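FIELD: query
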Amino acid sequence: MDIPFTVKLRDDTTLYNAKVGIWLFLGSEVMLFGALFSSYILLRVGAPPGTWPRGLLNVPIGAFNTIVLIVSSVTVVMSWASLKLGNLGKFRFYQAITLLCALSFLTIKSFEYRDKFTHYEVWKTDGARMTGHVEGGPYFWSTQTLKDKKLDHIVFHPDPHHYTEPVKPHAGAAAEHEGHAAITIPVAEIARLSAFVPAHSTYFAIYFTLTALHGLHVFGGALVIGYLWGPGAKLWKTDPERFTNRIEISGLFWHFVDLVWIFLFPVLYLL
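FIELD: result
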């Protein structure tokens, strides 16, 4: 028995079943990300002045990833249009570019995450705060790590620009920071040490929640597109219209994933 309305349009919605399903699913996704975006806005607006971190993300990398996803949205449309014209070869070509863009996005994001795990902020007992890297590039260090390792000092490489400056820098501070050379910080002068991980601040907790959830959507969408590009393309030989509909459905999901990132980029990276 054939499943009704897999190709033929329904009388009540003028859509086939899969399209009705994807729009209902995307509605739930809008509510999910809408709740997370709303939480971010409320937490940021409610944060005391000067306490919300800024300038700690790599804007050029975020902008490049935005371009990558926009390109992938274009190639998704082109692949669907190729099927409408009956050209399976061009479909495979454009979907291959889409998959390459998805892989590129996730790879770049993984390197960005790695940098956060080795990037630190130091809160000193005199009120000074600085960001940079601990020599050796350790992962996930914290104040407790310094105690567990019984270290006397750390060698710190400050960033070119700190989003907070020392309250009362000592006389040699300018010389130490000139050229952003490494400085030695006694552990006794460190009130807190944290990598740019969720435990660092509310900002990074939200950053990892939103970007990791979005990354899972990119990965899931890429799996579906990859299946339809590979073994799933066998349906083209037996039921090309139904296969074309499947590509349209996967494309709608992919457009949603791209749209979420277009909101994420300015909210997290620029504001």
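FIELD: remark
Confidence is low (pLDDT under 50) at residues 165-179.
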